[in-house]
Q: What sequence folds into this?
């Protein structure tokens, strides 16, 4: 709908989420300025060769050389990147190597690149717009993923952990700080003693809940449209069926398929997985107030919704 304020603005109003994410990544990753330049270039432009990284860095006026690039690509940034062989160079005959971001690289790149501007997220947004460009579903989904990552980062800040040398971040990103973990005790979240961090977690959790409600209601509204026509599910259009029955699974699996998203194999998602069942003992969300905000935003974007003020968090993730 034209003239509607972006949902991101309505959600972020009074809370600079991108700035907060940047600060947290700076605290959680011990990387020098040249490493940040490399991640920034790839996150903004997509896969690059070492030569392209060097030249793009020079254009920004940074004192970056090929040796500095190569040293970091083979050293500290090894787990942040995926190396893919490309075509042969016509002059040297050497095979070009392109560097893609891993999920760990994507998260670390948020120090300098806004989440929505990352090339992987842009690809994912294009996918959503292709199949589900209704009821603001793409925009809501991207914001939901961003806040989910923000909550993960904050939990690690609270625990005083560092992610620079963490391997296999894809498997552990939603496993950290599980209160019920009996195996990895060092991954449990510590009690929050810092009131500022506690307040920040409340803001992130509240907005995450609101976004989850908005997305659930937006997808449900597709079902309501279908039911209003009194048609059988098998007679639904492919687009409506995809949005109402399959899309939520695609959204939940985005992090597992980060490599496929980059390599345009996004149609190979696995079945739905429930991710976040954790609750913070020190953080309580006023569900009714959060749902009230969700109602207001849905009304502004023209989505009809039915709410039940539940004590449970209706996590889509």
A:
């Amino acid at each position: 709908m034209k003239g509607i304020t972006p949902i991101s603005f309505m959600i972020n109003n009074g809370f600079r989420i991108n700035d907060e994410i940047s600060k947290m990544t700076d605290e959680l990753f011990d990387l020098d300025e040249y490493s940040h330049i490399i991640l920034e270039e790839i996150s903004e432009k997509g896969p690059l060769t070492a030569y392209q990284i060097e030249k793009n860095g020079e254009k920004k006026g940074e004192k970056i050389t090929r040796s500095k690039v190569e040293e970091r690509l083979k050293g500290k940034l090894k787990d942040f990147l995926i190396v893919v062989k490309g075509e042969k160079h016509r002059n040297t005959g050497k095979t070009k190597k392109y560097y893609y971001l891993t999920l760990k690289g994507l998260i670390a790149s948020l120090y300098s690149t806004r989440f929505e501007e990352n090339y992987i997220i842009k690809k994912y947004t294009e996918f959503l717009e292709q199949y589900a460009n209704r009821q603001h579903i793409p925009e809501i989904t991207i914001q939901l993923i961003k806040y989910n990552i923000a909550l993960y980062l904050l939990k690690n800040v609270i625990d005083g952990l560092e992610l620079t040398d963490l391997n296999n971040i894809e498997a552990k990103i939603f496993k950290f700080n599980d209160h019920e973990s009996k195996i990895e005790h060092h991954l449990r979240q510590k009690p929050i003693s810092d009131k500022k961090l506690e307040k920040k977690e409340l803001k992130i959790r509240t907005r995450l809940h609101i976004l989850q409600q908005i997305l659930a209601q937006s997808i449900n509204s597709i079902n309501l449209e279908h039911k209003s026509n009194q048609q059988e599910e098998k007679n639904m259009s492919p687009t409506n069926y995809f949005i109402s029955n399959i899309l939520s699974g695609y959204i939940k699996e985005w992090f597992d398929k980060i490599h496929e998203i980059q390599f345009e194999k996004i149609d190979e998602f696995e079945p739905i997985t429930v991710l976040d069942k954790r609750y913070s003992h020190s953080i309580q969300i006023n569900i009714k107030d959060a749902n009230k905000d969700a109602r207001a935003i849905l009304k502004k974007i023209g989505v009809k919704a039915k709410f039940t003020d539940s004590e449970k968090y209706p996590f889509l993730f």
The longest strand covers residues 81-88. Residues 175-188, 265-282, 311-317 have pLDDT under 50 and may be disordered.
